[in-house]
Amino acid sequence: MAEFDYEVVNGRKIRVRPQEVVSEIDENGYFVRQPNHFTEGFGEGKNPVEKGRYHLVWAKLCHWSNRASIVRELLGLEDAISVNMVDHAKHEKNLGWEFVYDKDHIDPVLGIQFLSEAYYKADDDYTGRTTVPALIDTKTGKVVNNDYTWLTNYFEVDFKPFHKKGAPDLYPEELRKDIDEMNDWLFDNINNGVYKATFARSKEAYWDAYNSFYAAMDILEKRLENQRFLFGDYVTDSDVRLYVTLARLDIRYTWQLGHTKHRLIDYPNLWGYARDLYQIPAFRNNTYFKDFANPNNKKVGALFFESFNARFLDEINFDAYWGAPHDRAHLSSDPGNKFKAEEQ
Questions:
Q1: pLDDT of 193-234, one tens digit each?
Q2: Which of 17, 48, 122, 278 could be joined to 142 by an S-S link, Cβ 3.0–4.6 Å?
Q3: Marked catalytic residue, from 30, 54, 62, 126
């Protein structure tokens, strides 16, 4: 069994979380994201599909988990899959995600304080970072899936018996191959592209990620010039994945990318597209701009150097910017509808 460092919190022996900059950097300074560990799907011979069986844990700042929270609401799975949010634990050592929004920091469904407790209950020898999204079996208290790559697709396909009437078809069969290919491309160039630049430990790794990211943004800007969404008239799973990165780009990720080549608002098609999506309630309800923008103040000696956001964040009306007209509907042959309903 692997050896771990621990910290005791409220009588709970909690393992210290590994750091990306230590465990996920290759010999050339490139960030190589850890593989997902709990990847078993749902259905016959796998995790059972049952109403009320699972608890989705996600975090406001984490776009990997944000897309699961959006899809859950789009499909009307609120009564089938319970949900809670975590944030980074504020302790001397990095203990990972904690249920900081709950009374005494205890999740009322699972009875745990840290997400890691559900991870190690599922696999006591797990050595990776404890990540969100995490889908936890409420009967066992164990994580059964943390596979952000496919989790929204499981919601869209395997949990269809629990979708609301008229739920959107986010993963239509005739487009699945194309959507999967788009999702892989988005992961490599956009979703993970930001982090490959952020965690790069060599100039070569940084500029490779930086240039790939902005080249991909140019491709997307061109793609959206004559169509409302990535696959035409209707929102699909791929749009959710692109949106969660765009929503964080100007107010969060630009801190990490270094020199900013272009802002989101410098791409007229992408900026209008992002606003078009934000104005859908499930997107708006699961987007926390002030949390994205909240800075970490830098202290030098006895002085705090505060950013613009630190001083004026409460005065910024993000909803006014993102709720502004976008003029994207004219690109659709069905301008009154952003979704194609599932076949019942």
A1: 999 998 898 999 999 999 999 999 999 999 999 999 999 999
A2: 122
A3: 62
DSSP 52: T
Let me know if 195 is a catalytic residue: yes
Classify domain 6-162 by CATH architecture.
3-Layer(aba) Sandwich (3.40)
Task: List, for residues 313-334, the tens digit of each pLDDT value.
Answer: 777 899 999 999 999 999 999 9
CB within 8 A of 178, min separation 6: which ones?
Answer: 231
Question: pTM for the complete prediction?
Answer: 0.92
The pLDDT-based confidence of 90 (bands split at 50, 70, 90) is confident
Paired with 87 in beta bridges are 98
The answer to whether residues 279 and 235 touch, using CB atoms and an 8 Å cutoff, is no
User: How far is 114 from 189, CA to CA, in rounded Å?
Assistant: 31
Domain covering 173-331 assigned CATH 1.10.150.20 in the classification: no
Segments of the chain assigned to CATH 1.20.1050.10: 173-331
Verify whether residue 62 is a known catalytic residue: yes
Residue 37 amino acid letter: H
Q: Which tens digit of pLDDT belongs to each residue from 55-69? A: 999 999 999 999 999
Find all residues with CB under 8 Å of 167, minimum gap 6, and list them: 74, 75, 76, 341, 342
Q: Which of 118, 94, 107, 77 is nearest to 23 (CA)?
A: 94
Distances from the Cα of 73 to the Cαs of 70, 77, 102, 229, 284, in angstroms?
A: 5, 6, 21, 19, 11
| Given 120, 195, 206, 253, the catalytic residue | 195
- Predicted confidence (pLDDT) at residue 179 exceeds the cutoff of 50: yes
